[in-house]
Amino acid sequence: MFYYEIDIFYSKKNYQEIYNVLYYNGIQHILEEEGYLKIYIEDNLEWKIDELKNILTGTGVVREKDFIIKKFENKDWNKEWEKTIEPVNIKNKIIITPSWKKDTITDTENKIIIEIDPKMSFGTGHNETTQIMLEMMIENLEITDKKILDFGSGTGVLAIAAQKLGADKIVAIDNDDDAVENAKEYFEINHTTDIKLLKSELKELNDSGFDVILANIIRTVILENLSDMNFKLNSNGKLFLSGILKIEDKDISDALHENGFEILKKYYKSEWIGIYAIKIEQDSSN
Question: Where are the CATH 3.30.70.120 domain residues in the chain?
């Protein structure tokens, strides 16, 4: 049996375009390394490699030299891929582990263990933006933060973490059918089935009065929904954002100020940033 390992090098400008092409062409396993995305394709799907390369290089998204193909023999490509995935430790508080590595974790004292298998849905714990979100949650969630919205929930990892960190009422929404199904599965695996899971846009959500909104989503979706996020939050409510490239920092920061938020802290990891902001309390006398 043959399989192919493809490394696709990205920059600040083309990361999202590459990811979108892979996602919409059915690539379910995307491993994010420092500066490149790694995928595996079986030999009977060799035509898909040409298809992906033609799309990415033909449209100028990546250069040919940044699309590297390696061929391996007599190996189970999925098992080889699984070997590269290790549990991720976030600030010695939360450990995100794939199911096949769960039994290898020995130090579980005072740790939150969340089981998520890296696959298509955004938010596996193995990408940098999810790690940033979890770091912000560990550092800034308080006992008074009881009602939380996970907007664009993907696998549901942030909603799961929120419950295990002490939140009482959590709502998770996504507009993608596959993401909702994946989140439902992981809520069951991680014993967090009382999280309210909905297929919904933010504008369609009837619920409001949230203490915290979590949003690990792309820049355009953040900008389109900042006004609604402000409306859904309590005064002084917390907003945790990621999915933002460093070059998008100013756009997002300016929009936050324009929509009634104060930025308290920014987090940086590789090409990505996370932003912790609060909804500015309105002066009731005006």
Answer: 2-83
Instruction: Give residue 116's identity as a one-letter amino acid code.
Output: I
Would you say residue 3 has pLDDT above 60? yes
- Of 194, 89, 86, the C-alpha closest to 138 is 89
In this structure, are residues 102 and 190 in contact, taking their beta carbons and an 8 Å threshold? no
Higher pLDDT, 125 or 109: 109
CATH class given for the domain over 122-279: alpha beta
Q: 2, 73 in Cβ contact below 8 A?
A: yes
Q: Which amino acid is at 132?
A: I
Q: Where in the chain is the domain with CATH 3.40.50.150?
A: 122-279
pTM: 0.78
pLDDT digits (tens, 9 = 90+) for 72-111: 876 666 676 677 788 999 999 999 999 999 999 998 999 9
Determine the Cα–Cα distance for residues 118 and 48; give it in Å rounded to an integer. Answer: 21
Residue 257 token pair: 């100020």
In angstroms, the CA 275 to CA 187 distance is 26
Contact present, 147 and 211 (Cβ < 8 Å): yes
- What architecture does CATH give domain 2-83? 2-Layer Sandwich (3.30)
| C-alpha distances out from residue 205 to 80, 86, 172, 241, Å | 42, 36, 10, 19
Q: What pLDDT is stored for residue 196 in this prediction?
A: 97
Which residues is 41 bridged to in the sheet? 4
Q: What is the pLDDT of residue 124?
A: 58
Long-range pairs for 44-50: beta carbons < 8 A, 24 or more residues apart: 46/4, 49/4, 49/6
Calculate the average pLDDT of the chain: 90
